[in-house]
Write a structure and sequence with these properties.
The complex is a heterotrimer of chains A (403), B (407) and C (508). With 403 residues, chain A is mainly α. In chain A, 73% of the residues lie in helices and 1% in strands. The relative contact order of chain B is 0.18. Classes of the chains: A mainly alpha (403), B mainly alpha (407), C alpha/beta (508). The interface between A and B is large, with 46 and 56 residues.
């Protein structure tokens, strides 16, 4: 029986006494401490965040003392950080807070997180089949440039999406050949792919467009306006008029969950990633599955890139536009423990952080930097195993040799 | 435990795949000697040339111009007069080479212990920041202690920055690739902050620009070829050359180097011999970071003198270090030669090219493409296995082996 | 019971570099029988079965299924032909459920695309009830016992319609009770008309469950006999044979003080199974104690514990009178225990290092090799040159890469290093594995020489001939316990019997 199933079977009392419960409660409370000070609650006295934060820290210590050390430390840290952020917020002007934290922040959070969602799901497919894909950044960049190019030359954003996806697939195919057939070191190969993508997109950006933002009026991916909702007071700016790709991203999360965990092909993909020899002996074509997964990850990452330039970016491309988003997407995947909803949650968190950083730039450069750095710090903490063990697929990164 | 002890032992190809990273690279080196790195580089340049050709430019002219732009034509007419273009270009190339040697060593040292240090860029930046800070803050000190302070502290800072990843790997087994990539970006954002509006290192004179202060004169490294105001070649060049020697000395003449190499080749046997594997993982990363931090320090005190927000995204020396180290097969000599090659590419493509041959921006990106191809080919053992197989086919005993293993 | 022959292997021959694994072997399997394949380590049992299962291709000979010749290009073909194999190392995915593991590759589908978990579980339950293989279809493989894992593997084969089931050393990982449960399962499979090929080296089990027994020795088939009339003694004779490979001249031992004392040792393996179940013995200076046994009976864990590479569950180890409580490898080395490891390439040597650097592996940090962290390669080289001469290591000089030496010379290198440290106790685990005759001869003479120098030698080997020719005293290990102790002259059959779990019993 899975751990969760077992937990649900236990009577309530023992569940409450389980250190994991207090640990996660501590984490939530720590986050809540900061949340108290921002709109809509926006308490102006420092006491509330401090109290809640202390409770979080206490829960953390209790958790650590009863065996779950890393989770406990995580809760303590969250509590302290929550207090800090709460204090910061209560010291800021109300007007500033209201301007920074309003409904459109939610829309921006979705917008920022969408490339990450595409990237994280892309990475998940690849790694679930056993191939580490550090080259996501490069594949996303290819999509970003060639997607706009396709939209420009092809006339519509649909062509842009197709062309972008195609180039992502192509780069992924090259990478897959080196990683699977030639059994090259996958980290080295992924790094090489990133360099290649940077060089190729930069080169053709100058060759074809002379470094200027692609021609004016290029077809961009449209928004999807929900008829009644868009006019509502809060939901309107929040979700009433989001880009099509944002909705596509959500569909992707649900779809990938179904595919990976509820279909036979998903089972086979996971088998290749956990124990390729076992999969081979029952007749699964491990090479074929891995090739497919890697190419799919290239397509998805590239689609995220197309959104970045042709949706989010309004049809403009910049040299090295992805600026590390591929790596943040990888981080989201790891943070989410290689599961779609976990990766989605992490992507939202990181997207929120980036959106907030953008807004705070006007008020406080240091706060802005803090939120820009947050995704990376969180991932570092995650791989250090503080919040719980991150467990990659067992054969992740190991080339498979058919007998 | 199988019941059949007569299973065939590994073929060299299997050994090449299943050994540790360090062992695999060492195998490559034995298999190919110097031929393979040269072939790798040539192949990369060839493919790069095709890209240039396919987009309507003349690759031969482009490469010739890069060659001249890098000042490599200096060898035809050597002179110490810096006013001479070739001499000046060469001095600039060597300036880049200095940085690349150290960044390459940063990657190479970690590889020797079986780890992949992608964090050279971040460690380099941290070295830059610390050197800038101490170089500015202690103005008025005597030059020698000031330089030693700034450079030494920056080197230490780089070591600590990499040490975080090393510690995580030793303590909880966190993969150093992920942690160093994260630390890279954290270092980048720290830079955005310290040089930005109101940041601690932002220049005191003009608060509207996100650029740092200049390093004090007492902290600037002496220049020996050219003039300081015109970005001459500074003594850091010799420090880099010394670093190559130090790298070699550590690995071949100290017990620390012995342990690092043993852990890199075979952690099990190393543990069996009484070596503390975890301690060495940390140490190797820290030493790697020290090299990269030193690179940042020398650049800051040698010719940059200040740094700004806009400089951060364009710096790529840390990543080029990866190509340098891999091309040089993680050896001192190889790293030195690889650094010259990429230093020439780096400088030759950004200056000295006339637009009717190929624009500088295109050439700059060409460097990335070539770099990517080099790393790709090195990582793929393609050439190596080809060479290895050709040599083996000439030996009859080996032929019987392949037949049996393929059966 | 129909005597229909389902499967036949005729004249099968398979050669690997340096060794003939199967030499003209014939085998026939009848419907509904349990056919045991018996033999020592290296007899060729696994190779033969790997050929049957499509993992290897025979150099000569043929395989006939229901009278028709077949060739298997891979395991997939064999599975489709109705042959299933349960390997010693299970091919199960820990993070997936039992049902998922079983249906992998042949998954039931509903609504066109979705995995039908319920159908999978139902089918699994149906099979498990039919054959008495009790297992929970919904549990994760990581949470079930090893015995249950084995049942899952069997179900996997049955799910794919196996008529012939090959079980490779199935009781190696089971407790005695689980083994009995397995036998019950085998009987019900038999009743259903399935044929079972049971690979084993354990005489008592084979006599309990098999209908016919084929004995292999050194790649050749010795005989195929029905169970009736076979005794442990007759089988042991067939398995072990009479040839003795090497005779070593040695003077009688003159044992001195006790240098190694092991008392009531209990050691677990990596899976937590107790592999050493209360072993006690002593080794004196100037004697060679040989531990004979078939692979997997606890020798590896015993050696690991004595050399400090594995923790003891309980028990006591004393070296030269001093107790060494849970000592690390380093402390054992310093206490005077030398170790020639079982796997010289993985543990004993850093293949990329030179001979000189390998010799220094234990003591590189101490003078004269190094001083205050500074290494003196020249001194390593001089010492290595001396040892190379002394131990006749051929294939290169001090600077040659260890990986470039032949197996025999690599082992000589390891031996040189250990002996040069002047240990009190020398533990040699499989010292001549994979070596040619010349190297074997040299090492044997060396070991005896060290004994004569006054060292206490503990020899652990899978080669009975080696044990017989070198040891002054022989201990037989079976299932983690000492099954017999012999000094002086003893017959191979007696030892063979004890190694295989028999005492002086005959078939029931």
């Amino acid at each position: 029986m899975t751990e969760w199933a077992q937990r649900l079977e236990n009577p309530l009392s023992s569940r409450l006494r389980d250190p994991a419960t207090s640990g996660y409660a501590g984490l939530l409370l720590g986050a809540f401490a900061a949340f108290l000070a921002i709109p809509p609650i926006q308490t102006r006295t420092v006491t509330w965040p401090i109290v809640v934060g202390i409770v979080a820290a206490v829960l953390g210590i209790w958790t650590a003392a009863r065996g779950r050390r890393r989770l406990g430390i995580g809760a303590v840290v969250t509590g302290v950080v929550g207090i800090g952020l709460g204090i910061l917020a209560t010291r800021s002007g109300v007007g500033n807070l209201n301007a920074a934290f309003n409904a459109s922040l939610i829309a921006q959070m979705f917008a920022f997180s969408t490339p990450l969602v595409f990237g994280a799901i892309a990475g998940m497919f690849s790694e679930r089949s056993g191939v580490v894909n550090i080259g996501l950044e490069g594949m996303m960049l290819m999509g970003a440039f060639w997607g706009v190019y396709g939209a420009d030359k092809g006339g519509t954003w649909v062509v842009g999406l197709a062309v972008g996806a195609g180039t992502g697939a192509l780069l992924a195919l090259v990478y897959a050949y080196f990683a699977i057939h030639l059994r090259a070191d996958q980290i080295v190969g992924g790094t090489a792919v990133n360099f290649l993508a940077l060089g190729i997109t930069g080169y053709f950006f100058f060759q074809l467009y002379h470094g200027n933002y692609v021609s004016q009026g290029v077809s961009t991916i449209p928004n999807f306006r929900i008829p009644f909702v868009a006019d509502m007071h809060f939901l309107g700016p929040a979700i009433g008029n989001l880009n099509l790709m944002i909705w596509a991203g959500w569909a992707l999360v649900i779809g990938s969950y179904v595919v990976v965990f509820k279909t036979p092909i998903g089972l086979r993909i996971r088998a290749c990633g956990e124990h390729p020899r076992a999969a081979d002996t029952v007749g699964i074509n491990v090479y074929g599955v891995r090739y497919g997964a890697v190419v799919l990850s290239g397509i998805l990452a590239a689609l995220g890139g197309v959104y970045l330039s042709d949706g989010f970016g309004g049809g403009a491309f910049n040299d090295n536009m992805t600026a590390g988003r591929g790596f943040i997407a990888l981080a989201a995947m790891i943070f989410g423990n290689w599961r779609p909803f976990g990766a989605f949650g992490a992507a939202l968190l990181f997207g929120f952080s980036s959106a907030l950083a953008l807004r705070l730039q006007v008020y406080s450069a240091s706060a802005s930097t803090l939120f820009n750095v947050l995704p990376y710090v969180l991932t570092l903490i995650a791989v250090a195993g503080v919040i719980g063990r991150t467990v990659p697929p067992a054969a992740d990164g190991k080339p498979y040799r058919k007998q | 435990m199988t019941t059949d002890v007569n299973e065939p032992s590994e073929t060299p190809e299997e050994a090449a795949e299943t050994g540790t990273l360090a062992a695999r690279i060492a195998l490559k080196q034995r298999a190919g000697g110097i031929v393979v790195p040269v072939m790798t580089a040539l192949l990369a340049f060839l493919i790069g040339g095709f890209v240039v050709l396919a987009t309507g430019h003349n690759p031969l002219l482009a490469y010739r111009d890069i060659f001249n732009g890098a000042g490599l034509n200096w060898v035809f007419h050597p002179t110490t007069n810096v006013a001479n273009t070739a001499a000046y270009n060469l001095s600039q190339t060597l300036l880049q080479t200095t940085t690349l040697i150290l960044c390459g060593l940063a990657v190479a040292f970690a590889f020797r212990c079986g780890m992949f240090n992608i964090g050279g860029q971040g460690q380099y930046f941290i070295g830059l920041y610390v050197a800038n800070w101490l170089g500015y803050d202690f103005a008025g000190m005597n030059p020698v202690p000031h330089i030693l302070l700034a450079v030494g502290a920056a080197t230490l800072a780089g070591a600590l920055w990499a040490g975080i990843a090393g510690f995580l790997k030793a303590a909880v087994g966190a993969h150093e690739v992920i942690s160093t990539i994260m630390l890279n970006w954290i270092a980048i954002w720290i830079g955005e902050w310290v040089f930005g509006d109101g940041g601690p290192l932002q220049n005191a004179a003009n608060k509207t620009v996100p650029i740092s202060n200049d390093v004090a004169d007492s902290a600037k490294l002496p220049v020996f070829w050219g003039q300081q105001e015109l970005q001459g070649l500074h003594v850091g060049f010799f420090v880099a050359l010394a670093a190559l020697v130090v790298f070699w000395l550590i690995l071949s003449r100290t017990t620390l180097g012995y342990e690092v190499r043993a852990v890199g080749f075979n952690p099990e046997a190393a543990a069996y011999g009484g070596i503390n594997v975890k301690k060495n993982l940390f140490r190797a990363m820290a030493i790697s970071g020290a090299f990269a931090g030193l690179a940042g320090a020398l650049d800051m005190t040698g010719y940059l003198y200040h740094y700004g927000q806009s400089d951060i995204p364009v710096s790529s020396v840390g990543f080029l270090g990866i190509a340098v180290a891999l091309l040089g097969r993680n050896t001192a000599v190889g790293t030195g030669l690889g650094a010259i090659l990429f230093g020439a590419l780096l400088f030759g493509t950004t200056h000295g090219l006339s637009s009717n041959v190929i624009q500088p921006e295109l050439a700059g990106n060409l460097t990335y493409i070539i770099q990517g191809l080099v790393v790709l080919f090195v990582g793929a053992d393609v050439l190596i296995l080809y060479v290895w197989n050709t040599r083996r086919k000439l030996r009859p005993r080996a032929r019987a082996r392949t037949k049996a293993a393929a059966a | 019971m129909a005597e229909e022959v389902v499967l036949e292997m005729k004249g099968v021959r398979k050669e690997f570099p340096g060794v003939l694994a199967n030499d003209d072997v014939d085998l026939d399997i009848r419907r509904g029988e349990v056919h045991a394949l018996l033999g020592e380590n290296g007899a060729g049992k696994s190779t033969l079965m790997n050929i049957l299962y499509g993992l290897y291709h025979p150099d000569a000979g043929e395989v006939l299924l229901h009278g028709k010749p077949v060739t298997f290009a891979s395991a997939r073909d064999a599975i489709q032909a109705g042959i299933g194999m349960v390997h010693q190392h299970f091919m199960l995915i820990p993070v997936m459920t039992v049902a998922e593991n079983i249906v992998l590759g042949m998954e039931p589908v509903r609504d066109g695309v979705l995995l039908d978990e319920r159908a999978a579980e139902a089918r699994v339950r149906e099979l498990s009830e039919r054959f008495g293989l009790v297992v929970d279809a919904a549990s994760l493989v990581s949470e079930i016992t090893v015995g249950q894992e084995q049942r899952v593997e069997i179900l996997k084969a049955l799910f794919r319609g196996a008529d012939v089931l090959i079980l490779d050393e199935p009781t190696a990982v089971l407790t005695p009770q689980e083994a009995q449960e397995l036998f019950g399962i085998i009987r019900s499979l038999k009743a259903d008309g399935k044929s079972i090929i049971f690979i084993s080296h354990k005489l008592n089990e084979v006599l309990e469950i098999a209908d016919r027994i084929t004995v292999l020795r050194r790649g050749r088939k010795i005989e195929t006999v029905p169970r009736e009339g076979a005794t442990e003694a007759s089988l042991a004779r067939a398995m072990v044979g009479r040839e003795v490979l090497l005779e070593v001249d040695k003077t009688p031992a003159q044992p001195g003080d006790v240098l190694l004392s092991v008392e009531d040792l209990h050691v677990h393996d990596d899976r937590g199974i107790e592999k050493v179940r209360g072993i006690s013995f002593q080794v004196r200076a100037g004697e060679i104690v040989g531990i004979a046994g078939v692979d997997g009976n606890g020798q590896t864990e015993l050696v690991d514990a004595i050399t400090g590479l594995r923790k003891l569950a309980s028990g006591r180890i004393e070296v030269a009178g001093r107790e060494l409580h849970q000592a690390t490898a380093r402390r054992m080395l310093d206490a005077g225990v030398g170790h020639i490891p079982e796997d010289r390439q993985r543990r004993g040597l850093v293949l990329e290092f030179s001979i000189a650097e390998n010799i220094a592996l234990h003591d590189y940090a101490k003078p004269p090799d190094a001083h205050w962290g500074w290494l003196f390669p020249a001194r390593l080289v001089t010492r290595a040159a001396r040892l190379i001469r002394e131990f006749d290591v051929r294939g290169g000089g001090p600077l040659t890469r260890a990986g470039g030496l032949s197996g025999g010379n690599q082992q000589k290198l390891v031996v040189a290093r250990e002996i040069a440290r002047d240990p009190k106790v020398l533990v040699a685990a499989q010292p001549t594995r994979g070596l040619d005759v010349g190297a074997i001869e040299y090492l044997h003479r060396r070991i005896v020489a060290e004994r004569d120098e006054g060292r206490a030698v503990l020899l652990v080997s899978l080669e009975l001939d080696e044990i017989l020719s070198l040891s002054d005293r022989i201990l037989v290990i079976y299932e983690g316990e000492i099954a017999g102790e012999h000094t002086g002259v003893v017959s191979e059959e007696q030892i063979g019997l004890e190694m295989l779990g028999g005492k002086e019993r005959s078939a029931a």
